[in-house]
Structure formats: structure tokens, C-alpha cells
Amino acid sequence: MRHGNKINHLGKKTGHRKAMLQNMACSLIEHKRISTTIAKAKTLRVFVEPILTKAKTDSTHSRRVVFSYLQNKEMVTELFREVAPKIANRAGGYTRIIRTGYRLGDNAEMCMIELVDFNELYNNDSAKKTTRRSRRGGAKKDETVAVEATETAVEEAVVVEETSAEAEAPVAEVVEEVTEEAAPEATTDEAPAADETENSEENA
Fold first, then answer.
1. Which helix (H) or strand (E) holds 95?
2. C-alpha to C-alpha distance for 75 and 113, rounded to whole angstroms
3. DSSP-derived secondary structure letter, 59
4. Taking the complete model, does pTM exceed 0.85, yes or no?
5. Does 115 lie in the same domain as 149?
6. What is the number of domains present in the chain?
7. How far apart are CA 84 and CA 77, in angstroms?
8. Residue 61 in 3-state DSSP?
9. Alpha helical stretches, state H, 115-204
10. Are residues 176 and 102 in the same domain?
11. Cα–Cα distances in Å, from 133 out to 42, 130, 136, 139, 142?
């Protein structure tokens, strides 16, 4: 019975459990995301988050303390060089657990544990910048904007019609003047022709 026992031993002896968590922490720091069971991920989160907090202060003492947990010089270097600057402004909660379903063999509940600051999909700034519309007067504003748009369109159409009518009026007047000037010339041209015909008939 495990009354009051808050530590999940994961069915392993102390040495085996510490070695497993140490390897999982190194894999998480290297790959920024690993897939495991829910029970192991929750235990790993308790193990690795104090290490990440310690890595935020870059000193010889901090590096020695972190190395005592990880036992891997390359991972200690990567933790202080790449991970620590990213999590510098975050006050805890460095990891995220995302459930991914159940394992096919033993039906164990699987998940993905990742470092929060290295997920670009969840930390997209454009998704956060969304405008929020209030329900108060939103429809009225839209209606007034639509009415104003229709009024301006009608006014523009009226102005266009007036300008086109003004442009057509001088053209009509010019056409009338041209026809009036051409008509007298035609009558004067026809009169001598008529005189010539009359003279030719008298001579005959």
C-alpha cells in the first residue's frame, strides 16, 4: 500500500529509476521533445524542471550541480548555451505534456513531453493578435457603415450622370449649328442649277 507516498517508483529500484530519469532528461534537452508514457512523463517533469531553473544562472556552481544530475558534459553545455537563454524570462512551467493516445501492445497511455519555448506552433504571435468584437452596437455600426457606403455610391452616380449630361449638351448644340450652316449652302448650290435648266429650255 502506498498511503501518503507521493513518489511514483515506476516499478523500478532506486538506481534503475535514477538512471532512467537521467537519460530521459538528457534526451529531452537534446531533442526538445520525447514520447513516453504518462507516468514517466509526470515523474520526469518533477525531475527536470529544478534542473532547468538551476541552469538560468550560469555559474560554475550551477554547472556542477546540473552535472551531478545529468552526468553528461555535452548536455550540460547545450542546456546552458541553447535552452537557458530561451527560458530566461519564464518563471517555471518549462515543460508541456500532450496526450497522444494508447500504445498498441499493452494499451499504456502515451504522451509527448516537450519544452514549451521550443514549440513554434503553440507560441505563434500572429495567432494571439486577434481582434475582439463586442456584441454591443456591433450590428448597428455595420448597418451605418453600409448605409453610408450606399449613400456615397448614389452621390457619385448622380455626379457622373450630371457631368455626362453637361458633356453631351455642347455636342448637340455643335451638331445643330453645323446642320444649319450646311443647309443654306445646299440651297445656294441648287439655285444656279435650276437657272441653267431654265435657260437651256428657252434656247431650245
1. strand 95-102
2. 18
3. S
4. no
5. no
6. 2
7. 10
8. helix
9. 125-128, 138-203
10. no
11. 39, 10, 9, 11, 12
